[in-house]
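job 3f2a | input accepted
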Amino acid sequence: MVYEFEGKTEKDAIEKAAQELGLEKDQFDVEILESQKKSLFKNGYVKIRVHTVDTQNHVQPDFEGKIPNATVRAANPSIVSNPLPKDEFEQKLIDFVTEMIQKMGYNVAVEVMFREDKKIGIKLTSESSSILIGRKGKNLDALQLLTNVYAGHLGREDVRIILDTENYRIRREESLVRLAYNTADKVRQNKTSFLLEPMNPFERRLIHTTLNDIPDIETKSEGDGLYKQVRVIYKGVR
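job 3f2a | predicted structure (238 res):
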């Protein structure tokens, strides 16, 4: 299910969503639709869209893709897990992903990358990693979506499955943060706005969050469907 909420800040909007839906904050995905920093004459404003799990059909697409920092995992052995499946559920996930990619015509080695509360990371090792990733990660997103749907069919809608290969997720995240700052500099210099490429919900949220604290810049999502675009706008200092 999809809902929209508004608040003075992202935190305020998320807390409203959690309270009204009766859910914990880690039980739904958040997509920032619009963000405006507080100024002298305007109150701060954030509009979010919340994706919750549909327990009657399948899990909502999880494009979060955020890999926990490697140093954090090293400091916490409970997060750095045995790459071998520890139970029947993980074994079925490994078998499903392996068979799915092999039927696409590519060889792959699949193992558990990390385990966290209600989240499992799966690592793909293949000579065809660039194809599995696809343009802007769209193939990897599609494989991840199918894996999450399969997990839902196994009765584990509560678990999010993250697929990654060659650390694409974290490299993409770092690239988007640089893109956000570079775009902010560009629109500030030209005193205009700039529309970024279509992105999935997690990527758009990363852009919004990165630029949220810059006083003379605001962002908003535009378009329809899953892959919307973020417009970065110069609003000046009021």
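job 3f2a | DSSP finds seven helices and nine strands in the chain.
job 3f2a | closed
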